[in-house]
Specification:
single chain, 67% helix, 0% strand, elongated, binds zinc ion
């Protein structure tokens, strides 16, 4: 693993870039799951056999999808996306660190 340095060492930035990488991976996982099921069916398997492959692909997709959600490294709550930070963070506010990091507006309101 490369030592953090390009991201400035901010745990939130690192978590977001990790989640983004997982999100980019997601279509490939879905496609390979569906592709594997199609191949198995073409190869002469029953629909049940193909569905088994598709189910495995679906499980992998769900797993990658959970990885694609950026979470607060301190309290584990999902981080709001940078674009929609303000509206989303009002309802479910995380710990002191991620509520502060998710929007400067929230910090300004309190002070
Ligand atoms: Zn937090």
């Amino acid at each position: 693993m490369k030592r953090a340095g390009t991201d400035g060492g901010d745990p939130f930035t690192r978590e977001r870039s990790r989640a983004l990488a997982a999100r980019k991976l997601l279509p490939w996982v879905v496609a390979s799951g569906a592709g594997a099921a199609a191949l198995v069916k073409v190869a002469g398997a029953t629909w049940g056999g193909a569905a088994g492959f598709f189910g495995a692909g679906l499980l992998a997709a769900v797993f990658v999808w959970t990885l694609s959600i950026a979470r607060c490294p301190f309290c584990g709550r999902p981080l709001p996306r940078p674009g929609a930070a303000r509206a989303a963070s009002r309802g479910a506010r995380g710990c002191e660190r991620c509520s502060g990091a998710s929007g400067d507006a929230a910090r300004a309101e309190r002070s």
